[in-house]
Amino acid sequence: MNSIAQIQPSELRERIEQGNVPLMIDVREPEEVAQGMIPGAVHIPLGQLAGRLDELDQDRETVFICRSGYRSERACEYLEQSGFDKVINLEGGMIAWSEDEA
């Protein structure tokens, strides 16, 4: 069962351009983030997420980002179990985001 909401890179990019920017959390490791992040995203490595839930707003739509979409989906599942209901996974992660730029 996979009930995690997904957003396509093109859809997220469109929303950012329109100024309708959701909270974006990049859960990749520091060395991955060093290669580039989506402008405006906040870096919280997946392993630190549990201890940093107070940095998130339960009432705000939050998009989770990783390299391929797998870890960010795990983050969304964890947050849903923790009572967050406005979590969205960036489908395909930064790989898809980069491909969408072309």
UniProtKB/TrEMBL annotation:
Gene3D superfamilies: Rhodanese-like domain (3.40.250.10)
InterPro entries: GlpE_sulfurtransferase (IPR050229), Rhodanese-like_dom (IPR001763), Rhodanese-like_dom_sf (IPR036873)
Domain of life: Bacteria
Domain Rhodanese: 18-102
Identification of the protein by name: Rhodanese domain-containing protein
Organism: Saccharibacillus endophyticus
Gene from which the chain derives: ytwF
